[in-house]
Design a protein that fits this description.
Elements: E1 3-10, E2 20-26, H1 29-51, E3 54-58, H2 65-72, E4 81-85, E5 87-89, H3 99-106, E6 116-117, H4 127-141, E7 147-150, H5 168-171, E8 180-183, E9 192-195, H6 197-200, E10 205-211, H7 213-224, H8 231-238, E11 244-248
Parallel strand pairs: 2-11, 3-4, 3-7, 4-6, 7-10, 10-11
Antiparallel strand pairs: 1-2, 5-9, 8-9
Bound molecules: ligand LXAUTJHC.
Catalytic activity: 6-phospho-D-glucono-1,5-lactone + H2O = 6-phospho-D-gluconate + H(+)
Domain Glucosamine/galactosamine-6-phosphate isomerase: 28-237
Family: Belongs to the glucosamine/galactosamine-6-phosphate isomerase family. 6-phosphogluconolactonase subfamily.
C-alpha cells in the first residue's frame, strides 16, 4: 500500500477562516479503499465495544464501490451494525442508480449481510409522501450515528444536498431539527431523499471519500473561499469534528 502523506492541515490561506481537515492521501484507489475500510471497521468495533451497537451512514454513487467491498470483508460483529445510506435516488431498489442496490451488492455480502439495512427509499410515489415515516425511522433507529462516509460530486454536492438546494435552512444547518429531506434538483435526473447535515454531524467519525484531481480542486476551492455556497463548504465549516479526507487520483 502506498500512502503519499498523512497530516492535519488547514486548507485555507484566507484568515480568519481556518478549516481543519486530516488528510490521508494515496496514489492508488485500491489502497485507499482498503485503508478506509480498516479505519471505518475500527470505529465500528469501538462503538460496539462502548454501547453494544454501531450505526454507519455511507454514500452512494460510483466512488464507494471498492471501499464497500473491502468493508464487507472486515471482521466485526456485523449483527450489531445498522447501515443507512446518506441519500438515495427515488428509483426502485433494483434500479441501476439505486444506492440501496449498491449497498446490497457490495457491503451486504458474507458476514456483513447480518447487518441491518435501513433504506431511505420506500415504495411510495414520491419522497415527499414518504418523508414522515422515513424521518421517524431514521430518528429512532439510525441516530446518533457513529460513522459517516461522505462522497462528493464534482459540483460540490454531498449526499443529495446539491448547490441549488431550496431548503438550505434545513439541509445545511449544523443543528437543524429535520434529519431527512426530500430533494428536487435540476442537477439530479430523479427525485431524491437525503440525510441533512444535522443528522450527518451526529457522528464522531466523519470521512470524506474523494477521488480525482477535479474533485480535489473543488474541495480546496470551497475550503479557501469563505463565501462559497457549495454544500461541501458547509460540511467543512460546520462539522463539529475534524473531517478525515481519504483521497487518491
Ligand atoms: O448522487 C450522488 O453523488 C455523490 C457523488 O457520487 P460519485 O458517483 O461522483 O461518487 C454521492 O456521494 C451520493 O451519495 C450520490 O447519491
Amino acid at each position: 500500500m502506498k500512502m503519499l502523506a498523512e497530516s492535519v492541515q488547514r486548507l485555507t490561506v484566507l484568515k480568519p477562516d481556518p478549516l481543519p481537515l486530516r488528510e490521508h492521501l494515496f496514489d492508488e484507489r485500491a489502497a485507499l479503499a482498503s485503508a478506509l475500510a480498516r479505519a471505518v471497521a475500527a470505529d465500528l468495533r469501538g462503538a460496539i465495544a462502548r454501547r453494544g451497537k454501531a450505526r454507519l451512514a455511507v454514500s452512494g454513487g460510483s466512488t464507494p464501490r471498492a471501499f464497500l467491498i473491502e468493508l464487507s470483508k472486515q471482521t466485526l460483529d456485523w449483527a450489531h451494525v445498522t447501515v443507512v445510506p446518506v441519500d438515495d435516488r427515488w428509483v426502485a431498489p433494483d434500479h441501476p442508480r439505486s444506492n440501496e442496490r449498491l449497498l446490497r451488492e457490495t457491503l451486504f455480502q458474507g458476514a456483513a449481510a447480518q447487518a441491518q439495512l435501513l433504506p431511505l427509499r420506500r415504495p411510495a410515489p414520491t419522497p415527499e409522501s414518504a418523508l414522515l415515516p422515513v424521518l421517524t425511522q431514521v430518528a429512532n433507529e439510525a441516530l446518533p450515528l457513529d460513522v459517516v462516509v461522505l462522497g462528493m460530486g464534482e459540483d460540490g454536492h454531498v449526499a443529495s444536498l446539491f448547490p441549488d438546494l431550496a431548503r438550505r435552512d434545513i439541509g445545511l444547518q449544523p443543528s437543524g431539527r429535520a434529519p431527512v429531506l426530500a430533494i428536487r434538483s435540476a442537477a439530479a435526473p430523479e427525485p431524491r431523499i437525503t440525510l441533512t447535515l444535522s443528522a450527518i454531524f451526529t457522528a464522531p467519525s466523519l470521512y470524506l471519500h474523494i477521488e480525482g484531481a477535479k474533485k480535489r480542486a473543488v474541495l480546496e476551492g470551497a475550503a479557501r473561499d469563505p463565501r462559497s455556497l457549495l454544500p461541501i463548504r458547509s460540511v467543512l465549516s460546520g462539522a463539529p469534528v475534524t473531517p478525515q479526507l481519504y483521497w487518491s487520483p
